[in-house]
Model the fold of this input.
Amino acid sequence: MQTVRIARRGAVAIVTIDNPPVNALGAALRGDLLGAIAEAGADAAVEAIVIAAAGRAFIAGADISEFGKPPVRPVLPEVLEAIEGCARPVVAAIHGVALGGGLEVALACHARVATPAARLGLPEIKLGIIPGAGGTQRLPRLIGAADAFPLMLSGEPISADRAAALGLVDQVAAGDVVDAAVALAHSLAATGRWTRTGERADRLTAQDRDAFEALAADATRKSGDMPNAMALVEAVRGVFTLSFAEGLAAERALFLNLVADERSKALRHVFFAEREAAKIPGIAAGTAERPIATAAVIGAGTMGGGIAMCFANAGIPVTLIEQQQAQIDNGINRVAAIYEMSVTRGSLTPENRDRRIALITGAVGLAAAGRADIVIEAAFEEMGVKQEIFSELDRVAKQGAILASNTSYLDIPTIAAATKRPQDVLGMHFFSPANVMKLLEIVRPAGVADDVVATAVSLARKLGKVPVVVGNGFGFVGNRMLEQRTKAAERLLIAGALPHEVDAALTGFGFKMGPFAMSDLAGNDIGWRTRKSRGKTAAVADAICEAGWFGQKTGRGYYIYPGGARAGERDPEVEALIACISKEHGVTRRRFTEAEILARLLDPMVNEGARILEEGVATRPGDIDTIWLNGYNWPAWRGGPMHWADTVGLDVIVKRLEAQAAESGDAALEPAPLLRRLASEGKTFSELKAKAA
Ligand code: 3HC
Done:
């Protein structure tokens, strides 16, 4: 056996799973575990069995990389049937996480002991599926359907204490968890008082059923369009209407159906893409990092305040630096108000609020950055301003401090050139609101030291962010692609679409907001100012701003917001203005279907993504997907723009781009060479990833 070992402690056999890094239940482990249970169960000298695990987790679940491939026996339900059916009591000794199939292993055992720090959950819903190895049948039998259903619907893990309160674990071990499990196993064997979860029905009362049905009705109202949420309702309902064996079979059928669904494929792609994105090409895992005990953020505006919150939330003291005390006071008050909202909502305790606020101190003048291990500049987006700050930082920052700019567009080497330590300078591009959005683009200019990049990536994870290392270049990855979508949206207006049609196409696709509603929310003047500074124009967007229609804050933008309403209404004046601009451009307006609008918005983004890959600004297509999911609210179940392009077919996208380029005369819409090559070879972006890895 490669992944499991058996040891004896008296009459108890300890089966230890050892399948690094996280004991995922791949085919080899399933086979070994089944073998171990059979061997221990057949040993007359063994009275009870403990299933424990080596490493940092009990079991992280089924091996997600096996999904969608032909099943290899024994499948997990077979292994669990053997555990549950064992003639000796089997006790799970849980440490770290017991997730998905990992928790299902524990549920098939006859009792469970967990360490105080253990986390237990069934996160399958987040992968577009439902538990597929008895979780939907055993958990309700153990803790009642009304408690089991929300746990599976949210997918969020719970603490050992909460699990004990629910009856999911029998003991929280103060000392060694295996010792405690062995002791429990002994006593179960001695008393003979142990049950098989599948045989229990005591929690499935009429009252429990009513409570479950109320929750199911609520879930149907809110998530009726999520096939896995509805499958979960159906599977759990089976505990009241079907025998245990029938319930297991029904669950498995629903599970296998969902595994084959495109949405689950996309979510699995996202899982691996996010993890791969954390691997930095050319930098070995385990590269020594610089210690980060204190931080400074320059600029106490919305962005700077949000970044300071990220540090405080992670327990790292941070100094918020401005030129005047009044700006600091404003910044800190804004931060305090955001924390207060979390307290009111119940997501933050007053003690934690106080602890976090105490970690943020304000200071006037850059000299205060002298003590920080990392300085993040979030000042005005203008090269002159940035250079001045970095040249001063060069004077005051301690040796070895990491100097990062939060610029969204500007050239990092030019900023670094203002210092005599370009090896310590990189970009750390947060997304607004910085305390909420998960993405952190880490911009790696040519001259930066490897340990600086490695430290930034690991710091990002400590801050709860999803880091993606990108190359230097205007707008890096996310904003560079966003610019293509913005241009496409403007082109659509001139060609004949209206703002609400463009927005509806994107919300129909799964975005929370379309580009025009978003621009109205953020302020149309922001883009106007940027265009002016770059000598660019956009006929409709500029005209809207020239009319003073900056969006929600002025009550008018692409939409009208009567009485300060948050949801905009169609504005006949805006629509007339757009028609007029079409005429000026000599365009005969025509109608576009939702599918046409989507293609015109998204294909140019994919094209730019292909260029970004060609230039090496992004390492892998999955990095681009990770950026769009975590920074721009791309719907996760669509997998990101490059994954989406693969599902559409790259040849289809090439043809559509060619047609758009011909119609508009815009050479930028010509398919990128990489896109053309992959399409002509009948390949996908994901195959490109496989080759690069
Ligand atoms: N299958 C395959 N690989 C997995 C995995 C899984 N279930 N869980 C983690 N891994 C891999 C990761 O891809 C990563 O590989 P890499 O080093 O090559 O990139 C490695 O294990 C370490 O993972 P993380 O970087 O995520 O490590 P962390 O310590 O940050 O987190 C974790 C550990 C909390 C276990 C996290 O990995 C996680 O949430 N895993 C997924 C849990 C999950 O969704 N389980 C349910 C699976 S579906 C299921 O069980 C179906 C069943 O009902 C039949």
Q: What stands out?
A: The chain has a mean pLDDT of 96.
